[in-house]
Amino acid sequence: MGPGFSPLDEELGLLPGNLTPRLQEALVRLSTHIPSFAKAARELAWFTGATVHADTARQRTETAGSVLVAYETAQAARILHEHPAPPCTPDTLILSVDGAMIPLVHGQWTEVRTLAVGEVQPPVASPAGPVVHTTALSYFSRRTDSATFGELATLELHRRGIEGARRVGAVVDGALWCQSFVDLHAPEAVRILDFAHAAEYLTAIAQTSGVDGSLLSPSQLVELRHALKHDGPAAVMPLLRTLVATQPTNAELASSLAYLETREAQLQYPQFIAEGWPIGSGMVESANKLVVEDRLKGAGMHWAEANVNPLLALRNAVCNDRWQECWELIEREQRAQVAVRRQAHARRRAASKEAKAPAAAPTGIPPARPFVRPLEAEVKSPHPWTCAWSVRRQRELAGAR
Description:
Elements: H1 7-12, H2 21-33, H3 37-48, H4 54-82, E1 92-103, E2 109-120, E3 134-142, H5 146-152, H6 154-159, E4 167-172, H7 176-185, E5 190-193, H8 195-206, E6 209-210, E7 213-214, H9 218-231, H10 237-245, H11 251-261, H12 269-274, H13 282-296, H14 308-319, H15 323-356, H16 384-400
């Protein structure tokens, strides 16, 4: 007997490793939620009595995440190639993209890009003005360059029906890759510069030191921010230009003004509010913490580059409330991989047996017949159990006589 695969493994639908499918799912789910593989292993032992090492938790989780990453990458490529019809046609969608830094091994840092997309609800009146709520939020995160991220995010945006939405808005900061992302997926979207981001540039200009201190006092800065939000850029840009003109040698001050001037169309906050759009990118800022940092930016964590995206894919599955769907996909793909390995193993065994088989005899020469001992020469010793029974039976029969 040589090493092989038990048919019972296939009948029970077992996955790679020595855990049952249910235990493996529980271990991976705990490792996705809890910011420590060792803690996840301990929680599994507490709930189920199954003891596993932290390395097992890490390996099973990274393997499952890698399967999900490969599948989602292939699906994004298929959508880009085939351009299928969107699965839904929402009325109003809002999207936002941003990046968060996480630590790698050897003291390096890398950026994880995240997309947040949701449905915009009608404004709700409040004493401070209309409040816009965004619901049905979902996320997509990857550690990759901006161009590749834009292609991979096609999967999530297609699922949300961005191609068929009646209105689309994009609230982002002024980074060029964010604008390129919008160009790729929704070039006709209403583009809104995140208000907090714009306010940072106002603050930088107002707090620049002049001859008599800061160019604007704190109270004047508050008034300026209020005017930008409720009156629009036309009410604040002339004042900013006047302030910058007083510092002709300050290149940084001129750069801040140029940043706002080139994005003036994205500063029309009174119009955006009237149309029912949110003017802040809080949903993606929250996603940076909820999806990425809560799991990948803990104390003492340092990630290998190859293991970042598998964890991000699983975090997306959890935060999007799609765990069951994604895990069924992971199990199906892993079972398919096991079947392929078994078939390859069977082919290797068959080839090995064929190589070890004796060569066929030349044509015309009959094969040699094996020596067979004559029947009369065959003497078999009785089995000791049979012998003992026979003697005992003979004694019983003699006594009966």
